[in-house]
From TrEMBL:
Gene3D superfamilies: P-loop containing nucleotide triphosphate hydrolases (3.40.50.300). Coiled coil: none annotated. InterPro entries: AAA+_ATPase (IPR003593), ABC_transporter-like_ATP-bd (IPR003439), ABC_transporter-like_CS (IPR017871), P-loop_NTPase (IPR027417). Part of the ABC transporter complex HmuTUV involved in hemin import. Responsible for energy coupling to the transport system. One of its GO terms (molecular function) is ATP hydrolysis activity. The keyword ATP-binding applies. It comes from the Bacteria. Keywords: ATP-binding, Nucleotide-binding, Translocase, Transport. Residues 6-242 form the ABC transporter domain. This is ABC transporter ATP-binding protein. The keyword Translocase applies.
Amino acid sequence: MSHYSLLTQNLVAGYERRVLLRNLFLSVPEGAFVAVVGHNGAGKTTLFRVLTGQMAYTGQVQLHGRDLRHIRRPAAEGALAHLPQRNAISFPIEVRELVVMGRFRQRRGMLAGYTTQDYALADEALEQVGATHLAHQNFTLLSGGEQQLVWLAQLLLQDARLWLLDEPTQQLDVYYRRRVFSLLQQWVQERHKTILCITHDLDQLPNLPGYLLNLSAPEPQLEPLNEATVAAARAWLENEASLPTAHSRT
Ligand SMILES: Nc1ncnc2c1ncn2[C@@H]1O[C@H](COP(=O)(O)OP(=O)(O)OP(=O)(O)O)[C@@H](O)[C@H]1O
């Protein structure tokens, strides 16, 4: 059994005429928080597309010791849970009903549907993210930030040990941003989740235990999260010479 949630060796991926991930070597231990930073267009979402099986790559990728090439649909099979940047729903649905769907994988094949216990877990998750008051509202009428909290509550009900979050605090106000980062820490420590979190919110990072992965760096690698590494990443990202167009064309 691997003690790593994610291993990549020589991972290369990108689009026609543009390589975004170049020989990426990562060893992400179980129960870790990784802040993934980088310029717009640096390849952060592309990394998640590879890990969710949506994109071709060369090199090796393992999720909890399993070769990614042998996992047909990583999210559907429970190898990971993914919260994309935009997660639209076009039909009216009550928030609590959407959250309880996080139990879908565990309930598959059961004709009875979700149990009282599932709903209790949904209520508990809504409480954790501070969204109990939204439980009976129509999800599609919520603000972007409120919707984001609801998606986080749904993730809590999934059994995946590896979470990929694409800018989960993007639309949240200052209070909820801090709250979400502190919840992510709590879920890493108490539930032993491994969380890769794409963010541009560098201000929240220096005091969090975990790792920093700057995909705009010439040779991206995991570094410990602290004031010095975040300050160095910020200085690099603010420097025009580091923009993706300056170095990532093939
Ligand atoms: N299907 C595609 N074909 C060609 N290029 C693409 C395709 N999808 C994305 N790209 C380009 O690849 C680059 C990287 O995209 P990606 O979404 O990984 O960036 P990102 O680091 O997540 O950026 P952001 O911070 O803006 O979300 C972008 O310049 C984008 O335009």
